[in-house]
Predict the 3D structure of the following.
Amino acid sequence: METISSIVDLNEEAQAALNELVRVFEYLDRMGVRDFCRFDMGIVRGLAYYTGMVFEIHDAVGELRAICGGGRYDNLLSDFGGPKITATGMGMGDCVLEILLRQKGLLKDDTLAVQTLDYYVACADPTLFGRAVEIAAHCGKRAFRAISAINPAP
């Protein structure tokens, strides 16, 4: 990604988008999942309310369609009369997820999912966002159920 600006003369908006992409991959690296992610300019989400980066999540083998997909939208809530709040959202394909879980033996017909929460990670200081991402990822790697409320500086 760093070579893009050496090949193409980027205007201010394009440079800001590239900087955001670099930051995303830095966070993915801090979370320890960078090796499972790749940048694909061919991904196009069909909804017009996206205002930034979009993404799809596939299984490691990649034989099935996306498990989920989504992206950044800055105007969606205000378009419906709500406050102007930036957000990232996604939709998940329950059929694809069910197929994968069954293939891996993680979902059986008698499975009853009773979920409890082990940790809640909150970050009120934007300068500590990277560390909050690391903590939430560490919880997941240790098989703890964690939810986070972390918001980077715009």
